[in-house]
Design goal:
single chain, 2-oxoacid_oxidoreductase, 12 helices, Rossmann fold, EC 1.2.7.11, PFOR_II, alpha/beta, Transketo_C/PFOR_II, globular, five-stranded mixed sheet, about 350 residues
Length: about 350
């Protein structure tokens, strides 16, 4: 298929439509506004439903309801809006309802700024809502990756009966790049997906409080809830096989940069510039930030590596905590950070690597 020039938010929405998403509910917030705007136009063209809820809370619970009926469903927001949706996302996790959502993140804490940031890492990977549930979390570094991850996210959600998060940022969401869009699922394929969910979907089954995943979780007994959490823990453990990572020039690197999303894309260009100057830099880029690819850090040659440099658009650093688990105190960890809507610069990364190299 020919490449198409698209903005990140619009490309995410189109990928979802092509994956068979037929229900979207959302609420305006910068910098993700183009996602609901695109869905508002696109959904009627494919027989889907778009709703702008009266709030983030209303929107995510509409998605909870639509997904419970077996329809591939999605929502999106930015940072404080995702915080408002966290209870509904937790409900979907408790009830084992497959849904997909995107966070086109901005600065914080609180309302913060409307500019790009990576300050929702803990929220995305450690505490997306109450109750300790976990999700697959994908972190694109390009618009093409955002398309591919969104398209596949619906399959992962259905496979695991669990929410899936696309953790992007304001740069990925608002930049324009050429992309190859996946083939759209036909009406027959979309119908077949919904048909395959009839055994559990909320479509008029006789109530069975012990086994119906879609029953409002507050009605469960303590032992049923415990057993469901045991099953969920087994699911989360199985995700080690799904961890994805890019390792770039790590084998002989004297400084390894660890980064994700747009910061990693900038860091990769810094690695290339540093190599031209004879400085042996490398990059580890988690593509899934949950599960985190800790094993990738075992591939560093700690006999020659002077330090691992954590690069992220967050102050205080958050991503660095998982980096530290991967490094296991085998070498020092330095940081290169920015925040408040400032975008990481290649020059700052190069300077940070050179300082390490001079020590």
């Amino acid at each position: 298929m020919a490449r198409i020039f698209m903005k990140g938010c619009e490309a995410i929405a189109e990928a979802a439509v092509r994956a068979g998403c037929r229900f979207f509910a959302g609420y305006p917030i910068t910098p993700q506004n183009e996602i609901p705007e695109y869905f508002a136009r696109r959904m009627p063209e494919v027989g889907g439903v778009f709703i702008q809820g009266e709030s983030e809370v209303a929107s995510v619970n509409m998605v909870y309801g639509a997904a419970s009926a077996g329809t591939r469903s999605m929502t999106s927001s930015s940072s404080p809006g995702v915080a408002l949706k966290s209870e509904g996302i937790s409900y979907c996790a408790a009830a084992r309802i497959p849904m997909v959502y995107a966070n086109i993140s901005r600065g914080g804490p609180g309302v913060g700024s409307i500019h790009p940031a990576q300050m929702d890492y803990f929220q995305a990977t450690k505490a997306s809502g109450n109750g300790g549930f976990e999700m697959l979390v994908f972190a694109p570094s390009s618009v093409q990756e955002a398309v591919d991850m969104t398209y596949s996210a619906f399959d992962y959600a259905d496979r695991d009966m669990n929410p899936v998060l696309i953790l992007a940022d304001g740069v990925i969401g608002t930049m324009m790049e050429p992309v190859n869009l996946p083939e759209a699922k036909s009406d027959e394929e979309v119908a077949a997906i919904k048909e395959s969910k009839k055994s559990w979907a909320c479509i008029g089954h006789k109530l069975d409080y012990a086994n119906r995943a879609w029953i409002q979780p507050g009605n469960w007994s303590t032992m049923v809830m415990q057993n469901e959490n045991i099953k969920a823990a087994e699911l989360y453990k199985s995700w080690e096989k799904d961890a994805q990572v890019e390792e770039y020039l790590v084998e002989d690197a004297e400084v390894v940069i660890a980064s994700y999303g747009i910061s990693a894309r900038i860091a990769k260009s810094a690695v290339e510039e540093l190599r031209k100057e004879g400085i042996k830099a490398g990059l580890i880029r988690p593509i899934t930030v949950h599960p985190f690819p800790y094993k990738a850090f075992d591939n560093i040659n700690y006999n020659t590596c002077k330090a691992v440099l954590d690069v992220e658009m967050s102050i205080p650093a958050q991503f660095v905590h998982d980096v530290a688990i991967g490094v296991k105190e085998r070498c020092p960890i330095e940081t290169c950070l920015c925040s408040g809507g400032n975008i990481m610069s290649r020059e700052a990364i190069i300077e940070a690597v050179k300082k390490i190299n001079e020590k």
